[in-house]
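Exercise 7.
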Amino acid sequence: MVTEGTAKSTKAQPIEAPVFYESGRVSPYRLDYRTTDPKTGKVKRVKRFFASREEAVEEWRKTSRTRRDYGLHALSYDAEAHREWMEAKRVVGAGVSLVECAVFWLRHAGEVSESPEVGEGVAIFVEDKQGQGLSKHHVADLKFTCGRFAEFCGKITVREVDEATVRRFLLSRPVSARSIRNDKLSLANFLNYAKRRRWLKEVPEIHASDLPKEKKSPKGVLAPGETERMFAWLAEHRPEFIPWAAIQAFAGVRHAEADRFLWEWVDCDHERLVVPADICKTDDDWVIQGLPPALWNWLREYRSEGAFRKPDSKLVSKLRRRWVEGEVIKAWPSNALRHTFCTMHMSLTQSPDATAAKMRHQNTKQLWRSYCAKIVPAKVAEAYFASAPAKISKAACRPVRPAKNLIG
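Solution. The predicted structure, written as tokens, is:
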């Protein structure tokens, strides 16, 4: 479709009839047509401008003939591709098939001429990944797994790595199925890199059936009543730990991050938390907003300065045992507060994407696999997030100095 200036665009007309409208450009004649992206295969729209109507109409007719004779994809054949084709024909000669030349190159000239030892290849791979600005945790994981693979392989070159070698390595350690799966993912990262560098012709494929089956991890959560009793106990006996527990229970902050949290990252006025990159597992700065009122009620009630007060690992174990013995909770599941937050937030919002954003996950797959126990009724989730100082007696909420016979 060719377009040029009138005050208003007109309705679409038959394919050979140009339509004109006000362009407002130095080259007022515009040609619109659809083609396919050679990289993705998706249809895209192309706009080209011409100085005269004759040039635009002639180009449109040529485009229409090409599309009619060779299909829509033919419009993706550009000048650069034509120059490459002409240069290739000049090199190999007019009577030689470029397709046969490409097949020959893949079988012979395309073979890896020089392949480093696995250890040397891993060192280059890790250095390259560090230069790409990836998360330091990700790079450390790649370095650890691929380093063990290099030790396992010994002096062989990357080209000699085959399916049997990879399988033996993955099964060489008595670890969980999940750890084996993580090793496989890290190793695939290196092997794909080796193929791109032409150290390796094909990446060895390991079928999932050749590896131990990964079992779903247990995801235990606390009931709303258990959570409320736990905070009531803390308010009576150890109120200094309430903010540390609240950001885990009502914001989904990781245990390791809560241990290093500072009050300067808490903005009660705008109700948002800032998780800086240096304490975040994902190595990114995060601003978490839209958190439940219960969190802000607890944080305002026990506002302080400096670092959050936290119990050491031994005291955490003692607290949990005391809660079970005192029937504050039935049992303490692994990673209970983060699992509970995920389960309750997804049940309340019915939006996995929103929960993933709060928990700082790039997608929802990890939530379903490792964090969300099951979707509970919305009333249960509402009761969980309603836990706040106002729900407990004022005496229980008032900070109390712990007695000497209580947990130290």
